[in-house]
Amino acid sequence: MSPPSPVHGLDRESQRTQAARSLLTSRLADARRAEAALTRKLTPKRVHDLRVATHRLRAVLTAFHDLGDLKTQEREVKQLQDALGAVRDLHVQGTWLEEAAQKSEASRRAGFQAMHARLMSPLPDKERRLRRALVRWADRTVPALERETRRLKGPGKYGGQRVRQELGHGLRQLESLMKQRARDLTPAMVHALRTDVKKLRYEAELFVPALGRKVKPLLEALEPLQESLGELHDADVRLHLLQHFALHGPAAQRAAARTLLRDTRTERARHAARANRQLADWHDEERTHALCALLE
């Protein structure tokens, strides 16, 4: 995952309004560059790049929502993010299925190809929706974001107590959700954890110029956890797809799906074990308290 563009000229004593303008301008520029590349050619990597850029842009809008009409704009950006996500999900699973087909016996290839064709059949419609979302983004959302950037107004310091309290609150919320997890992570719990980890990670990124060493240990803990939960989520999606094909597909698809189910369950168990080890670290009270203390 590419890092966001650096934002210069900010420190903990900067005004929140100044920081919000600088961060919003930078994250919007990142998104526009990714958008331009995607508009030229719709590829899996470019879809992913713009999706990450919209996540980071939404983090700014959420963190500084009180300085302007940013909640409305955050909902607009989410529409584009959702359209990107629908295409991205098919890209991820389609690529995985293609790789599995290449490793399979020749006698199973027809079943894999049929399964891949069925999986990817919604892609043209989702790509059309994405293109419409890109038009709306360029024509409506970007000008509105630029207007709101100029209008931002409000008190406070970029590295002030409010910022540290909000990050600490997000960390405690995540810790609470982690404590609710079952011994075996369910798909719903994986999705909820992954969403909260990603949200806190992108918000924490915003405050590196202000908090520096205080926030970097949090990022170092969140980044590998986000990766593990992402891999586990992808395995859950694959299992759901394969179980559907194994039960409801034509004979060739059923046979191909059943050849993958065992390996996919093993893969899922491996990812779950890794994620559980990482999550167990968060239950070490000394570590959690240390992360919270850094933000005080």
Automatic annotation (TrEMBL):
Domain of life, per lineage: Bacteria
Family annotation (Gene3D superfamilies): CHAD domain (1.40.20.10)
Xref: InterPro entries: CHAD_dom (IPR007899), CHAD_dom_sf (IPR038186)
Coiled-coil residue spans: none
Residues in CHAD domain copies: 13-287
PROSITE patterns in alphabetical order: CHAD (PS51708)
Protein's name according to its UniProt entry: CHAD domain-containing protein
Record organism: Cystobacter ferrugineus
